[in-house]
Structures are given as structure tokens and as C-alpha cells.
Amino acid sequence: xxxxxxxxxxxxxxxxxxxxxxxxxxxxxxxxxxxxxxxxxxxxxxxxxxxxxxxxxxxxxxxxxxxxxxxxxxxxxxxxxxxxxxxxxxxxxxxxxxxxxxxxxxxxxxxxxxxxxxxxxxxxxxxxxxxxxxxxxxxxxxxxxxxxxxxxxxxxxxxxxxxxxxxxxxxxxxxxxxxxxxxxxxxxxxxxxxxxxxxxxxxxxxxxxxxxxxxxxxxxxxxxxxxxxxxxxxxxxxxxxxxxxxxxxxxxxxxxxxxxxxxxxxxxxxxxxxxxxxxxxxxxxxxxxxxxxxxxxxxxxxxxxxxxxxxxxxxxxxxxxxxxxxxxxxxxxxxxxxxxxxxxxxxxxxxxxxx
Length: 355
Fold this sequence. Notes:
The protein is α/β, with parallel strands linked by helices. The protein has two domains: 2-222, Spore Coat Polysaccharide Biosynthesis Protein SpsA, Chain A, CATH 3.90.550.10; 238-332, 3 Solenoid (UDP N-Acetylglucosamine Acyltransferase, domain 1). It is built from eight helices and 30 strands. It has helices at 33-43, 57-64, 85-91, 93-96, 115-124, 178-183, 195-204, 224-235, and strands at residues 2-7, 27-28, 31-32, 48-53, 73-78, 101-105, 108-110, 128-134, 142-146, 152-157, 166-174, 209-213, 218-220, 241-242, 245-246, 251-253, 256-258, 263-265, 268-270, 273-275, 280-282, 285-286, 290-292, 297-299, 302-304, 307-308, 313-315, 320-321, 324-325, 330-332. Strands 1, 4, 5, 6, 8, 9, 10, 11 and 12 form a nine-stranded mixed β-sheet that branches.
């Protein structure tokens, strides 16, 4: 069984971070989100991985290499334009051959991995197996409609009026039968070859399509809110450790990881939180669910529930929260300027202004 990992999207919902950086490499708990997926595939016993890449291919290839660091054999498949999930299957036809395969979206996160799902597929070998989860706003996803027996009746991509709240999770499993369905697709209204339409074709042709409702934790880390939420979930299981330098004037509370080469002085760190290698924290407060990457600097500042990428620095700022701060960003206190309030208020308004 092979894997097809999709790592070629532009990450428009994570801009401006993704103007210069691959969205699949944005870290949670100081590890790129893509790495969690690769480890999940390895743990499920899959070693041959075809990775579909686009404009950010050099970054992905530099980070993953030949896959040997993960116990994998990685082959890169270039996608000139992001023309849909089914298009990725189409261009990977030669690599996949007639093998069964898992298609895994590189910016998705499933806590606990996919081993039970892969074992279930291997045991039954349906033509397709999809994972579903209930979501608040199905319009943002592919949506499945089940019949009275619980079988998949219909799939629709990002419907304006969803027939259910069951969204497709970014992990799919197929036999080679899907290639014929993909070959006959035409672009949707979004200009893409939709994998939901390929699976629908399998259903219409009487092929076996199985679904599993995922009750655990899944996130599509396509926006900052979801990235921060996944970071929170991963940090919940953080193992505390101090491998760097922490002075006597510093207080560590809860599950805190101080990586090698980091220096923390006269500060208060409340976990779960991780301070990356070579980072310097001085006279500051780092609050829960914060991941500070390598070679950062935090001085006389307060930050919590945030992600800092490599080389970021914060100085003299109170207070930062729920933020994603990119590589080598400098955040400093601005000079104080005269304050003024410009108001346009309707009748009978009540306004409170802090001095």
C-alpha cells in the first residue's frame, strides 16, 4: 500500500505567512504540521510515499528530503497548478500503479494517527473509504449524505446548502479502481477536478464505498485559528523538560519544555509551553499554549496562546495573545503618541473610554 501526500496548496487563508513559506511547514509545538502526517503514515506501516508539490517544492524537499529521516521512501510529483485533489491522483497515476493507496492532505491533523483506519481498509478493501466528521459549517468542506442504512448516498464539494453536517476529513483510501473514475472527470464550477465527484462516480457505478465517522480530533489547519487550536491540542500532551539554562529568578509552572541552548532569565513560563533551541527569554511572561521556535528573543514582554516562528523577536510589548508571528519578525513597542478618540455615535448611545 502506498501513500499520496498533497503538499502543493498555496495556503491563501494563512497569508501573509504563506507568501514566503509553505503552509504544510508551519509548525505546531515546534514541529511542521506535515511531519505529523508523515509519522502517522509510517506508524500505519506505509513506507512508499508520493508527495505532490507545487510552487513551494524546494522548501518541502529541503525539509523532508528522501524521507529516510521518517523511515519512508519519498518520491516527489510536481503539480504545475493546484487543480484539485482528483487532479493530484491523475498526475500520480504512473507512481501509484495498481496499488491501493492512502491520500493524505499535508495540512490536516488527526490526533492519534490513522493506523486503525488503514487496518480497517486493508481488512475489507472497499473501492474507497472516506473519513467523516461533524462540523458546524459544512459549506467549507466536501459533504457526505448517508442513506437510512448508513451507506454513503451522495457527496458534494463545498455546497451552498449542505444536506448534512458530515464533512470529509482529509484522509482517503482507494483501490486502483478510482483511476478510471478520475480519468472521466471534468472541472467543477471551481475549475478543479473534485475527488468528491470521483467517489460519487464510484457510488453511481455500484462500487463499494465505505465511510467511517471520526469521533476523535481532526483539524484542517488552513487558517490561523485552527493552527492555534491544533497547537493547543498537541501541547496538552507535552512532556516537561529543561535542557537549556533557567536562572533562579525564573518560575516554571506546569508542563514546560526548555530546549537545549535556550536561556530563560527573570521570567515566568506557564505551561503547557515550549521554548525552542537557542531562544532567549528575559524579564517576560510566556503563557499557556505558546510555542516559541528556535533562535527567538522575548524581552520585557507578555505572550500567550501563540506561535512564534524561527528568529522572531518581541521587545517591550504588553500584551500579545492568539497570534501567529512569522520568521524573523520584529515586534517592538511604538513611541507614545497623543491619544485622541474619533466617534460617530447614534442616539442614546452609552460609551466607556479607558483613560
